[in-house]
């Protein structure tokens, strides 16, 4: 395992640095590292690492969500409330609609299988989008119109919506029944996740303040450990409550961080944000290399050019959905185009659920997995490079 971690960090950082020199996003090099080191190419990663890959990726995602929550200003979110809410489901719905309408014609699946494929492909990747939005907020790019905050909030809820639809469509393809309660899980999961995180955040803020009042202040490094430990438990609550009530662990984590920022002294939240930023330097490598390792590129050979055409068509529908969400916001054409680009990358959700239909023995399983892998390979560098090349030109810069 230690050898594998050495490969992950050293090769991942090296290729990330090379990409940076070439003016490409670092994550492209890290993703390529994972593909090459993974079980489908050189097979240099220990099976014990791969067996806990999903948990390690989730830990890395928690770190950047905490960093995001500690950087967010709730007043900014209130001012972009409507488009942020729309961005959480309209673009994904447009993409699923595109698959439902055109995949039967292009890929030879039935309507229900096409809808299932759309649900797999419909989610934006928070692992790619959230770090970039945090970087833009810290640099002051687009913050005057709350563009990074809006995208960050929308992308965080987008996955919940898509995963609920995925489980619903999966049941329908298998011949199961669908209940309205399945769709009610979407708002319930969002509201309960935010509420749970806010309550826990208030409790942690009170604990830190009480320790200060008793002249036994908790060091910032210790606060990081406490917050991280509580975040892991919040993610566990999502699993514990499954089957009883829907709760979004990721939203709970971000809500907790936002509450700590509001209730804590500005200097404290700033220091915590800086420390989580330092943790992210290592977590970023782990996340993107392991996401790359989960990609079986051999499946791209079975997808074919028609799958590429379907992905491109779906992205056009997705772009139209983003544009509709931004009507009446006062954003310029360039700013709207940046939002469309930011909503392109796919990675974590597709890597997590893309193989489920195949594992369940569905006839469309291999085609769905092949298309998901192809979408990851196309949209991640496309979205990452697009954001990297355009944010400085399309977004106005405020004082960070």
TrEMBL record:
Membrane topology label: Multi-pass membrane protein
Signal peptide: none
Organism per entry: Candidatus Faecousia excrementigallinarum
Keywords: Membrane, Transmembrane, Transmembrane helix
Keyword Transmembrane helix: yes
Lineage: Bacteria, Bacillati, Bacillota, Clostridia, Eubacteriales
Compartments, record wording: Membrane
Domain Cation/H+ exchanger transmembrane: residue ranges: 13-383
InterPro entries the UniProt entry points to: Cation/H_exchanger_TM (IPR006153), CPA1_transporter (IPR051843), Na+/solute_symporter_sf (IPR038770)
Protein name: Cation:proton antiporter
Main location class: membrane
Keyword DNA-binding: no
Highest taxon of source: Bacteria
GO biological process: proton transmembrane transport
GO molecular function, one term: antiporter activity
Pfam families (UniProt xref): Na_H_Exchanger
